[in-house]
Amino acid sequence: MLKSKTFVKKTRKGGVLKVVREHYLRDDIWCGSAACGECPQDKPVLEAEPEIDSSLCGFPHYLIPDTNVVLHQMDVLADSAIRNVIVLQTVQQEVRHRSGTTYQRLRDQSNNPDKNFYVFTNEHHRETYTEREQGESSNDYNDRVIHVATRWYNKHLQENRKDGDAPKVKVVLLTNDRENREKAQKEGLLAYTVHQYVKSLSGNPELVDRLAQVDMGESTDSDIKNESTGRVLFPEHLPLSQLQTGIKSGRFLQGSFMASRENYLEANVLVHGDESRSIFIQGHAHLNRSVNEDVVAVEMLPEDQWKCPSSMVLQDKDGDEETSEPDLGSPKARSNAIPSGRVVGVIKRNWRPYCGVLQPSGIKEATRHLFMPAERKIPKIRIETRQAETLQGQRIVVSIDGWPRNSRYPKGHFVRKLGEVGDKDTENEVLLLEHDVPHQPFSQAVLNCLPSTPWGITKEDLACREDLRDLPICSVDPPGCTDIDDALHYLEKPNGNVEVGVHIADVTHFIRPNTPLDQEAANRGNTVYLCDKRIDMVPELLSSNICSLRGKEERFAFSCIWEMTKDAEIVATRFCKSVICSKAAMTYAEAQMRIDDKNRNDAVTFGLRGLNALAKILKKRRIDAGALTLASIEVRFHVDSETHDPIDLETKELRETNSMVEEFMLLANISVAKKILSDFPSCAMLRRHPQPPPSNYDILIKAGKSKGVDIETDTSKSLAVSLDQATIPSEPYFNTLLRIISTRCMMQALYFCSGTLPESDFFHYGLATPIYTHFTSPIRRYSDIIVHRLLAVSINADKSFPDLLDKYKSQALCNNLNFRHKMAQYAGRASVELHTQLFFKNKVTEEEGFVLFVRKNAVQVLIPKFGFEGTIFLKSQDGRGVDSPFVFNEEESSQTAGDVKLRMFDRVVVQITVETSHIQHQKLRIRLVKPEVPGFSVPPVATSDKISEPPVKKVKT
Amino acid sequence: MCHKIRHPRYWLILPFKMAGLEIISDQGYRIDGRRSSELRKVCARMGVFTQADGSAYIEQGNTKALATVYGPHEVRKGRGKIQHDRAVVNCQFSMATFSTGERKSRPKGDRRSQEMSMHLRQTFEAVIVTELFPRSQIDIYVQILQADGGNYCACVNAATLAVIDAGIPMKDYVCACTAGFIQDSPLLDISYVEESAGAPFLTVAMMPKSEQIVLLEMNSRLHADNMEKVLDLATQGCKDVFAVLDRHVRDHVSESHALMTAS
């Protein structure tokens, strides 16, 4: 049967366009129920006798949720207790329209055979199609559509029972909208609210906690009455239509809300479409219930109300509903005021479930509790739970449901429990979840894609690869590395030139496109390194065995071989798939020893010396071109082999051999980038690093000035030069500190697909090269796998496949890789932080540190030995600071107390302890020891060792 | 059930998914309710005009086309075009001003309709047995009355019926159909909404009995691995169209026969 659907649509230009679409009604859409004897369906999704203990519905039944129930109560629907649900197409489409993430979760449910979720295409079903009446609102229409489908199901299941004796299966409509429910009940349908239904589930009392707190219709009134204070704390959010007109007219600006990590009352909004522009927001009312990462509409404040960031470190401490605001803005500092605004509405919430802990409550039997997220940018969340007692001291996951105007905190509900606070596995789990790192074990489907063991090289393999097994190839890696993905060789040629080869593990030989293994790797994006474990991108058999270029074993490689002059000028480049046999797998230290040991003269050592000489030329050339050498301190933990607790730590140290390997990897990446770009101008996967906007450097320039050093930041070259010159002989650590600060001024490097950007944007600022990509670590990065595939196609070693050449899919993949890369970095840092805490547990340590930033009420201190940064609060948090001897001088950013003055780069001695008074939120506490400030600094610990000198290079291998 | 925490998943948002439109659902239904290998409803009438030598009207879903055929007759304009061994086929494609959502006057000679006319000419020169009519000309005029995707196909199918109505001998029917490749699945007979999703699609005109392809056109790049799937689907589509057209022709002939014998 054919129906035509006619509607009017507004075009982008503002004109009105009539759209006519066909709408076919079918009679081959089945009901999906195993209890039905009529529909000729293969595998019915819904069970014939659904079992669930409900005191409200004591008969077998299926559930039909309406749109709002799906949108708000997804956590309940996702629970394994809820099964046999009919999802109407109308509901699914509406959910898709309203929230992408919920839609995705709903899809996951219907793809999971254990959940028995059936999607019924009701709008194309001949008997459930409902025509919209004239003047009917879309809400009423949707309600009616759902009623029609529910009624049809009831009738259909009753009339077409397969087994006459079986109890009748009924359909229960779940809706929280009172009007809708009453209308349905009038029509004789079974309709309940989710709350009624979930509370009636006698077998699953824990589900009640997962109910979201937003209530539609009836309960809103009582909610307001229940609220302890009837006061309205926040200004109203404007409706979306008003926001849109406002944005169009330029009165409002749309942007992403980025909460400040240091001060919960401050945030910046990055304006969309103009990436360099950000608007400063300060204070409860102006922040107006925005949560980190929301898309918001902002109204600019008049210039005389502009504020300046308070340079204060503030943490949300008060547990009550008070909104006492500490004095943030100092009117004197008007000259520093930056463009400020206030949030007038939220365009899109980007809430996700958050990990954290419950704040202990004073009253024992209370059901309303505050939840403290682990992420400092997220406000506390009020939840209702009856199991608070058991949740104390546990890491839990909570979702936000809404943020009413009269509530100081957003409201949410409990999702699940992770484990005990402080337990290392739980904490690891938390940081993996918080950074969205996929860390489940590999599924069977993925493992099935692995080659069978024992694995060996066959004749066919040799026929299509170059045999490079006789070359003196060796690999150099950090100690303990099991996923070796690169190896090198060096040969002198008769014509006076040299041959240099970089051999990369041929992972794409094993990971074929579009297999489950490939999809899993693409989703994971990269291997994540935590201090005590590694979350692999590909299963261990590949990463640590078959693909790893281990010493004295035959392996497949993808080789990039140059012919160079002895001055490191490339004469020719070629790429090939090969078979290699690494002669030695060395650590950096071992390689260094070989180079230095004059008595050794074997081929590998000879090669290493040659490579080292070339690398020095390459490095010099690169630095002359303006490549930056930046600094960050990385630490390694020595872990106790039994308890897995960190027992000692050292800062990573760099040897000549590190930079030798790095130089050739850079060279290989650049050569490959050129090759794939020339063969695939529109779909090559490359990596770019944009130049930071000049304002990013303000802090660096200011820091330099405080010591009388000028830093030039026009180009990467001038920055590199001025960083090199910025040394103060009396302060040997000054240069490193400057480099650390300049690292923070940089932009993120990004993967992108070459067809999506103009060629002028391809350049890599940090490496000072016009084009760059990642080719050298396919075991731990998915981008390299794509690059390998592209290169293989361009040298005719492999076939292409559709997704590889599709620039949109390629860019979508890049977006995922960029996201995963960022998250992997954050997770790695969080892991170091966690281990640092464990390391300092039950210890009082004194250590040397340097002042990195001076804030209004605190100084941030970097402790090089441990590579971490801590905050010393100089004043109480409300900023009034009557009890503190320190006086803040904003002009020269210093803090003075008596004759002691703290300025940037000053050397201090601090005492580090783990604050255990607050069991929920353990954190490192650092206190000032030197310079001594009476009444503020703490006396040195008598037993402590003498303060160590600026980081001594400890060699521990 | 392990609950998974999600951040925004940029990776799942494919760029060609239009806002609020899902070209094909997980259940395998397209926006208009068809499955991926189903044609739109085809309605046809032959002999709609009496003054022309042959004429036909076809509806493929919301795409509607009218075709008229004159000839074979002597070459009128441009005697230089005369072919001594065969007939010249002259095609003209046009779109009615009211054929789209917005009324728009469409000059006959614009690039798109010229191209379309040329494609039609190529198609019909290949199937009409032109050697039977040396030094003459056959005119085929096609107009799109309503456009909703697959304009060329509707034109070819209408013109086939009109040529048959005119009694001009053809080697075989020529049937046309489109097939697109959207969200990793091949879709048959794509409508305007599906066309505007920006994915590649293939237009095929073929002689269904011999499976000879008369015209093949692709609008954008499609990977060779997928080409076969899409082409197979389009071929099947052409055969399905043929079945419908053939039934209409036979019905029409038996109707006319009945009329003639009755009178």
What does this protein structure show overall?
Chain B: It is found in: Cytoplasm; Nucleus, Nucleolus; Nucleus, Nucleoplasm. Chain B: Belongs to the RNase PH family. Chain B: This is Exosome complex component RRP41. The complex is a heterodimer of chains A (957) and B (263). With 957 residues, chain A is of the alpha+beta class. Chain A contains 24 helices and 38 strands. In chain A, the strands form twelve sheets. In chain A, strands 8-9-10-12-11 form a five-stranded mixed beta barrel. A five-stranded mixed β-barrel of chain A has the order 13-14-15-17-16. In chain A, strands 18-25-24-21-20 form a five-stranded mixed β-sheet. In chain A, a hairpin with a 6-residue loop joins strand 8 and strand 9 (266-271). Chain A is globular. Residues 216-229, 318-324 and 943-957 of chain A have low confidence and may be disordered. Chain B has 263 residues and is α+β, with helices and mostly antiparallel strands. Chain B has a single domain (32-262), classed as GHMP Kinase, N-terminal domain (Ribosomal Protein S5, domain 2). Chain B has four helices and nine strands, in the order ββββαβαββαββα. Chain B has helices at 111-127, 151-166, 192-195, 224-262, and strands at 42-46, 54-60, 63-74, 88-95, 136-146, 175-182, 185-188, 201-207, 212-218. A five-stranded mixed β-sheet of chain B has the order 1-2-3-5-4. A four-stranded antiparallel β-sheet of chain B has the order 7-6-8-9. In chain B, helix 1 crosses helix 2. The longest helix of chain B has 39 residues, at 224-262. The radius of gyration of chain B is 21 Å and the shape is globular. Chain B starts with 41 loop residues before the first strand and ends with a helix. The model of chain B is unreliable at 1-19 (pLDDT under 50). Chains A and B meet through strand 2, helix 3, helix 4 and helix 24 of A and loops of B.
